[in-house]
Structure formats: C-alpha cells, structure tokens
Amino acid sequence: MATPVTESTLQADAPAVDEAPPQQRAVPASEPEADSPPNVSIGSVAEGRELDESSRAVLTCHDVSIYYGAFRAVNQVTMDVRTHEITALIGPSGCGKSTVLRSLNRMNDLIVGSRVTGTIAYHGTDIYSRGVDPIEVRRRIGMVFQKPNPFPKSIYDNVAYGPRVTGMKVDSMDDAVEQALRSAALWDEVKDKLKQSGMGLSGGQQQRLCIARTIAVKPEVILMDEPCSALDPIATARIEDLMIELRADYTIVIVTHNMQQAARVADRTAFFTAEAAEGTGDRTGHLVEFDLTSKIFSNPSDKRTEDYISGRFG
Amino acid sequence: MSTVAGVDAVERRPQPTDVSLRPSSARVGERIVKASMIACAAVSIATTIGIVVALLGPALQFFREVSVVRFLTETEWTPRFENPHYGIWPLVSGTLWTTAIALLVAVPLGLGSAVFLAEYASPRVRSTIKPVIELLAGIPSVVYGYFALTFVAPTVLQGLFNVEVGTFSVLSAGLVLGVMIIPTVASLSEDALSAVPSSLREASYGLGANRMRTVTRVVFPAAISGIAAALVLALSRAVGETMIVALAAGSQARMVGSATQEGQTMTGFIAQAASGESVVGSLQYNTLFAVGLTLFVVTLIINIISIRLVQRFREAY
Question: How far apart are CA A174 and CA A176, in angstroms?
C-alpha cells in the first residue's frame, strides 16, 4: 500500500517532472486502483550489477491485461520500470510486447476497441483511472516509434513542436532545440541546416531527430518501440550508445526483436511469449520472466526463456 | 523420418531444362491493353485542345470588331442594344460575387465536415455520413436553382432572416451554389486528410499534443496539397456552374455592388444568349465565344495561382 506522501516525495526527486499539477495526482490517488502494491514484484529481482536496488519504480504494472475488442492480446502482466534504468521487453513476434509498451503511455487509446484492465501506475497514480488526462501522461512518458516518423517540417520545427503544442515555458526556443539535439547526439550533424526538412535526413539521423523531439518536452520516461529495426548496424550502434547516455537523465523502456541489443543496453529484461488459447486459437501474450538482464541471459529461471535466448524458437 | 522425406524431396525436384530468357510469347494482350489505355487518356487531352481551338477562332473574330481594351475596361455589357457596349466587367462581377459567396459557405462547412469525418468520427459514423454528403453532389443543378429561387430567396432570406432581397440575387444563388460544392470540398479534403500516415498523428500524440493541435499543426499541413486541389476543383465548379446562377442570380448584366443585388454571371450570359437565335459568324455569336474564352482564362489563372500556393506551403510526407 503506497501512501500518497511517499509518492509525492518520489515525484519531487524525479528530475523531469517539473511542477506536475497537484490535482492531477490528487484525484486518482483517491481512487481504489491507486492501492496497487508497487513493491510486489520488486522482491523477485536478484541483486547484481552496479544497479541501485533502492531505485524506485516509475511505472508499476500490476495484473495488466490488454484487449482489442473481445480479443485478449496480453494477459496479466506484472512488472515495474525503475528510474534511470533501461528496461527491455523481448519475445517472439505477436507476443504483445509492443502492446504492453503502448499501454504505458496510453497510446493504445488511439485504437478503437482497445481496453486495459489491472493497474499501470505512474508514481503511484493509475494512468487509466478517471480524471487522468492521457495528454498529460504522454507528456511525461514520451514515445519513439519503430519507423522514424519525423514531421514533414524543418529540423528545428520538429524539435520545437512538442514544447510549442504543450505550452511549455522555455526561455529560448533556440536553446531548447539545441539542447535537445545535443542530447540526441545530432547537433553537430544538423546545426547548419536546421531550416531544412527533417525528411531529408538519413534513417538513423531521422530516428535521432525523433529522439530529440521526444527529449525536448522533458519527459521522465521514454518508450522506444523497436527503434533500430529500420536502421543499419552503424546507425543502430549510435542509437544504442545514445540510450546508455540518456539513461542518466531519463528512464527508458525499449521493445526489441534483437536479443543482442537487449543484452547490450538493458539493465532489466522482460521476456514475453504468446500462447494459443484452446479452441479459438487466438494468441495471447504472457510475461514469462522479468529479471536483471544478466540473469535472463545467463541463468534464466524459465525453460521457455532459455529456449528463446538460445535461439531454439522465436 | 522427416530427414529422409526431405532428402527424397530434393532428389525428386525437377531440374529446369529450358533456360532461355527470351519472351515466351509476343505478349500481344499486354500491348493491346497499353494502347487502349493511352487512347483513353488521349481523348481528354484531345478534347481540351479541341475546345481551346473552337473557342479561339470565333473569339478572335470578335476581337477584330471590338477592341480588347474596350472589352477589358468598359463597365457596361449591352450587346443587344442599338448602341452596344462590350465591357466584360458586369459579367465578371456577377461571377465573382456568386463564387465568393459560394466559397464562404462551402469552405468552412466542407473543411469542417472533412476534419470531423477524418479525425473525430468513428468509422461507423463516417461510413454513414460520408455517403449522405456525397449525395448532395448527385442533385441536378437545375433542382438547386429552383430551390434557390422558390425557397431560399423568399422563405429563408426574406422570411427567416429579413434580408431585403428580390426574387433574383447573387446572394441566394451564391448560397445554394455553396451548398452544391460542399461535397466536393468535404469528400476530397477528407480523402487527403485520411491519407496522412497515422505515424505522424501518433508522433504528435506521443509528444503530448491534443487532437486539435495534431489536426491543425500536423495533419492539415501534411494534407494541404490535397485540400488545395479540393478547393480549386470546388472553385472551378462554382465559376463554371450555370444552371443555378441562370435561374436565381438574375438576367440583368450590370455591375454588382452588394450581395442583395441581382446580376448576371459569365455562364449565365452564355446560357441566355446561346439560344440558337444567333447566326453563326455574326458578332452576337462571336460574343459568346469571347465570354467563354474569358471564363477559360479566369479558371486557368485560378489554377496557376493555387498550384503556386500549394508548392509554397506544402509539407510533403
């Protein structure tokens, strides 16, 4: 049972949550769903690496099932995402890992008929509870997509878009744009062509532009949905380096098809798989195992994880 | 077992004997199809050229008798008077008024419907409302004309809004003309908005933008070339529409100073004068072609301007 007092201290510590409107937390805190125990799954994580085991959970998923209409895409996921860590979601195609990712900032709302049960709490607040504005959720939990999708606008306007549309107060938009592009390791390549279209960049540059665009609104969490799947190995390596740099300031959740990528960048890894329901044949995703990446890749506790890691299926 | 079966399959696989890469047939069907497609496309090009040629001949004859300067500077259009004047401006002013009023109606309503259908409506609502809007396009314009004459002018304008209009006015004609072109604006703009990749919308929502900002700052600019094409087509239809204005705008060619006045449009004049009484080759006959050519040039200029505008503001995705 998380007390509201603890939650607000957590939020004050978090670097990117600048003056979150108190009523936004206060309203759902009175909801029964906010009683979700954020510590339930923490106990199962083994000690190891140089991770700070006292680090707090930014996002806590408890018993999360996701439906598209009558079809249950994901069943009963319980895991949490800790601050300043990279959490990877891996698993074979159709195991629901992207669906889980998109539920973390209510991107699934855009799909007609989608529905989430269980709780997904952001600093103790269920993001699906009444009174929560999905726009506020997405401002704090940003997203980078599988295929680079810069706006057909100039590089500058791409980065400035978020601050502009969310009404963020910035002293100088030029500085904000430069800072975001620097954080995304793109500044040196584009500083002389900020007025040119973002669509004219290479795929890897476009993806870093999308990351810069996300960083510009100063979210606390960045969700990345297979951010390198459309990129060549060199561009992929740059994005991976970038993720590790960004971990100091942000909390990252990444979906990847590439197990080596998860092993290289992630602090913790969640392995999902899909099982066909008897009768209907609908494939529903399950969380098989969630642990430190080192444990998942060296000594998984579930046979299915081991089979997947060693390339026996998936 | 499975290994043995696999080996068997490999051994039994037939080896290709014919490795020639030349075409195995003359592909006659392909050529016929291609030729007939070219012929189809050529028909519209030939028609356009034919119209221009047919317009130019008599129009040039006209300008041999009436100077271009008088045609473009005088403000009286009285081709049938004893002392005729051939100033095109009264007709142009009639066309401009009806078109402007029509656009004032059709652009907000059409774009509003398009944004609603593409961005806000659920698929079920969209699939119900879009055909209804498109149904408006199927109503014959003569019906719209009578609607303007017998309902909009007396009942709506005079009765409901207490506007002092006569039976004929550019206002009633323009309003109904606007309603007629709403489907053109709405349907084509909706197509353009829906064609914007959803990844751009997702990117915007992912940054914490609300729906209105996403529509106005991302989707709309990305769809602008399609929307502009819709508006140009609607504009061309308004400029070229004949039946509504011939019935409801009036038949007096004079400079139109306010929306409640009656006036004749270029198309209205052509419809009125092309009644078969004009002798081929006479000045009266050639006048029709001069007006037709003006109409053609006006539409052409509108098209060129809008292409320029689109190139300037377009955000190609």
Answer: 5
CB-CB contact of B165 with B171 (8 Å): yes
Structure tokens at B14: 């037939």
The contacts of residue A63 (CB under 8 Å, 6+ apart) are: A76, A77, A78, A117, A118, A119
Least trusted range by pLDDT, from A20-34, B196-210, B246-260:
A20-34
Average pLDDT, stretch A82-97?
90
pLDDT of residue A52: 66
Distances in Å between the Cα of B312 and the Cα atoms of A155, B233, B315, B316 are: 18, 19, 9, 11
Q: How far is CA B130 from CA A313, B114, B137, in A?
A: 47, 9, 11
Indicate the domain borders of chain A. 4-149+218-309
If 0-12 CB within 10 Å is exposed, 13-18 middle and 19+ buried, where does residue A222 land? buried
Tokens matching residue A172: 């100088």
And the tokens for B288?
């029709």
Angstrom distance (rounded) from CA A56 to CA B192: 46
Structure tokens belonging to residue A126: 């269920």
Chain A residues touching residue B201 (CB < 8 angstroms): 110
Token digits for B100?
């402007």
Cβ atoms of A227 and A207 within 8 Å: the answer is yes
Rounded Cα distance between A163 and A168, Å, is 5
Question: A-chain residues within 8 Å CB-CB of B213?
Answer: 165
Residue-level pLDDT at A35: 39
CA B194 to chain centre: 20
CATH for A4-149+218-309 is 3.40.50.300
CA atoms within 13 A on the CB side of B231: 20
Nearest residue, CB atoms, B208 vs list A150, A151, A162:
A162
Give ipTM to 2 decimals: 0.77
Chain A residues lying within 8 Å of B202, measured CB to CB: 107, 110, 143, 145, 149
* Residue A212 in this model has a pLDDT that exceeds 50: yes
CA gyration radius, chain B: 28
pLDDT in the model for residue B10: 58
User: Which chain B residue shows the shortest CA-CA distance from A224?
Assistant: B206
Q: Where are the alpha helices (DSSP H) in chain B?
A: 2-12, 28-65, 68-73, 89-115, 123-136, 141-147, 170-194, 198-206, 211-213, 220-222, 224-240, 243-248, 266-273, 283-313
Q: Count the residues in chain B.
A: 317
Count Cα atoms within 13 angstroms, Cβ side, for A210.
32
Contact between B238 and B175 (Cβ < 8 Å):
no
Interface touch B203/A145, C-beta < 8 Å: yes
Q: Which amino acid is at A116?
A: V
Q: Please, which pLDDT band fits residue A5 given cuts at 50, 70 and 90? A: very low
Fold classification of B90-313 is MetI-like fold (1.10.3720)
Is B174:B105 a contact under the CB 8 Å cutoff?
A: yes
Q: How far, in Å, CA of A122 to CA of A140, rounded? A: 10
Q: Which among A85, A88, A41 has a CA at the least distance from the CA of A62?
A: A41
Cβ–Cβ below 8 Å for B203 and A136: no
pLDDT digits (tens, 9 = 90+) for A131-164: 899 999 999 999 999 999 999 999 999 999 999 9
Which sequence spans correspond to the domains of chain B? 90-313
Summarize pLDDT for A45-70 with one digit per residue, the tens.
333 446 666 678 889 999 999 998 88
